[in-house]
Amino acid sequence: MVSETQLGEHIVGAYHKLITDCEIVSYNQRSKTDGEQTEIDVIGINSTNGEQVIYTCEVITHLHGTLYPGKPTTDRWEEFGNSDYQYTLEKLWKKFTSDHRYVTDVFDDADRYVFQLWSPVVPRGYVTDGLDQLTNDFENEYNHEIEMVINEDYTARVEELRELAANERKDYGEPAFRFLQILEHLR
Fold first, then answer.
1. Whole-prediction pTM
2. CB neighbours of residue 26 within 10 Å
3. What is residue 2's predicted lDDT score, i.e. its pLDDT?
4. DSSP 79
């Protein structure tokens, strides 16, 4: 099954292509290893100034809030609300640990790894508290942070893209950015 790139993923890819200057942006990257269910929403590779930085991004564009419905299989996240909150945190933990394994193996000579969660709407409270715990646990276990690009931070990054789109006419092959360019150049 081919996974179609979602619009939210295109926004993140455009940001990394045009703002962080990634030379390569890949969408819905999957592992070739049998049995590996790894699927990373966006990977950006920036190799400027003699340093290779790998951006590994999970993208959740649920406008009603960052929830995956389901039942958790562990009680690790039980202090963070109902089963949907717990399942969301469990799913993100699995995704980021799998992402870490994949990018540090495939890009084993990279100088730096940046892990990010992008989501425009994340309810404050249980979920953000759980995300704080998830990032702390991830940093303790893997010695890498997960940068939360959520709510206002997400909006600020889209605004950066909009400002660039208002001043650029060149087509960079990034559909979300091209859409912003069209909107910004309407007369």
1. 0.92
2. 13
3. 53
4. G
